[in-house]
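The instructor's notes for this session suggest beginning with a concrete chain rather than abstract definitions. Hand out the sequence below and ask the class to guess, before any prediction is shown, which regions might be ordered.
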Amino acid sequence: MGGYAVLKGTSYTLAATPDMVLYNGTTQTTERTVNPESEYLKAVPSHLRSYEDIVEYLPNQVYIGNRRPEELSETEFPWYDKKCGGTREGKYGEIMPQDEFFGLIQICDVFDLVKLEKTFAEEVEKKLAAHELIGAQRAAILNKNADTTEEELAALVEEEHAEPLYNGGKLVGAVKRAHDIDVNLSAHVMLENLVTKASSVLSLMHLVKNTGIDPSEIEYVIDCCEEACGDMNQRGGGNFAKAAAEVAGLTNATGSDVRGFCAGPSHALLNAASLVKAGTFKTVAVTAGGCTAKLGMNGKDHVKKEMPILEDAIAGFAVLITADDGVSPMIRTDITGRHTVGTGSSPQAVIGSLVTDPIDAAGLKLTDVDKFSPEMQNPDITKPAGAGDVPEANYKMIAALGVKRGDIERKDIPEFVKKHGMTGWAPTQGHIPSGVPYLGFAREDMLEGKIRRAMIIGKGSLFLGRMTNLFDGVSFIVEANDGSGSGDTSGVDEERIKELIADAMRSFAEDLLEK
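After discussion, reveal the predicted structure:
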């Protein structure tokens, strides 16, 4: 068998959903329940961005690969008041408009729960038919709305507990409940799960395009979002992975879901890399869709500071892990960090278990890792909410441990943070910013010889499930491929080994001739 599993490609997608901020984000829906006449709710519509503004927002352009992370630190902060240009299509994915995303949600609905107003559906069908990855065959599903009127949608919402879909403030669709009494199949949950599925499907389709792989070659899919699907008898039974693979056309794939709150993607990627290295599967896709609940999560703080509400897009990503091809960056499953039951929850203990412990075990120094990718939240979102610059806080803690270990001098902390860290750009949707946004750039930089190693760090807060107060996290090293199939670049290289074998054979032959 060859060497380590490799990072074959990535995709990153966004769906602009400004109306969903008001009607589906938890901060807003909770406010509507507690205080329906809230001044905040009245202010929200005037703080929602247009599709064009969402596209021209620098962190979003970085997310889909049109701009580099370095450009964030080179651009005057804050960024929300500056248009950077940019396009819908990116190197890694796209920013899909809200109306088309509603159409994709219906394409992903196999239980006839989604209804779209007929005129709206006709217009969206044309757009999706022209989409290079969706096409006329999938878009034809929207024909089922030929008789759906706005009055019918209003009746579903008002009388049948359906969840409304608004576009530009106008009711254009509804998602029905899947069961009369099962809260796990309520309209709210079904919409949440269909949004997650649709954004995962979009990312998987872009992954196939970006890597050029035949969809039939993907054997296993791992979903690592933060949602759960099931009914009253098995609330989180799954399976998002196989459901998304079906719509994305991955006909030879099976799959399962991995959950770990924000650390889920790192757990999933380690699972995928291990499955490939073990030879169980040759090709595994890791994917995750976004989360409606976190739309406008920090909206109150943004409105209070007279800002637009920046959490207005559903994010998704997908990563392709394959057997060693001798070129793509390797997932070093032998250099992994893990937060154990006994680790503790202090910042020093957490960073120690995830960063310095695995580096020590590999005989490396902190400075041997070119880039660290922890929680890559966009500070444009988190700073106004009082959460500070999350990536920067992580880097300062890593640097502080570096000083304690003797890897760097105290005076070199700012330079270490600048050289080995990055400014965050990812949407604050829990699992989305957790290490994985950098994988696309890391692969690119390694192939171009700009960096050798990157560490992906996933961290999660398990107390949210009320099952434990423990913290969680795993990490791993991604390393440039040396072509040897071993991943061990510390010893002699492949050519030298061949030379040694040839010399030994030559000596053996000479000994035989002398006898």
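Then share the key points. The longest helix spans residues 187-211. The two ends are 39 Å apart (CA to CA).
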